[in-house]
Amino acid sequence: FESECAPAAAMGKTRGDDAAPTTRDGLGLKPRGGVKNKALLGRKFTGGARASPFIRQWAWKREMKTDEERFRDDYVYDRDDDEDDANPKATIRLRQRKFNAASSGFASTVWDSAIVLAKYLEKRNRTSGAGARWRDAVELGAGCGLCACVLAKRCENLVTGTIYATDVAENMDLLTENVKACSSRIAPLAYDWRDAPPKSIDASRVDLILGTDLVYYDDAMPALVKTLKSFESEALVVYFAFGRNRQALPRFLECFDAEARDAFEEPRFLESHELDALYQCTDVSVMELKRK
Q1: pLDDT, tens only, 202-254
Q2: What does the longest C-alpha to C-alpha distance in the chain come to?
């Protein structure tokens, strides 16, 4: 893949959170936050309808969870204390694993950005009606598979066809276990961005691409942009969500401008009122890309 996007080292880019500006022509959110009071870490927050708005917003954040909740217990989506009418049939349960850099790494747990994007999809599902349906969908770097599972099980108005949950080969065991337990509509597939899309995916039918926390490694950004360009549906919409670990976002935008700007509209960061009112935070942003 010959790219006009020069190597990061040649552009003087360095890695690390402090080197990650997040504005794009005045768009986007500078990631703030982190826990100011470290004594709060590891305490269980339960939320609930009677809790203050502050507690309810912090109750779902993964940063506030114990290691047991983040890496050993199953993650149960949408059974919050304030959802008295929650539908047990729509509950999503995902296996998580202890962090292991040699195998699944960061893909072994559910992160805040995946929750924010999943809740945005549910909001779109409630408000879009039958006129906003996409055909097939692909989740890139799916990890535990939350967004793919939410699309399949809780967003009947959004996607009519197959939902492909993809990740690199070493992450597929956990991903496959989770999505197969969730819905037969989801097809788990190993996908290396340096390669063409798997033959089982009809790239012309993919109208929706999702990804969470994908922009943390500079060297992967040319391949990520190449991947986006390989899906050529005129209706294609891409949603990327990322938390504070977004140090490769400038690199992604540079590669996007060099390789994909002719095919996509200007990137847009969703505003607060577009996201779920409860499931949003200052250190998670959602970016939208649309085919021209």
Answers
A1: 999 999 999 999 998 999 999 999 999 999 999 999 999 999 889 999 999 99
A2: 57
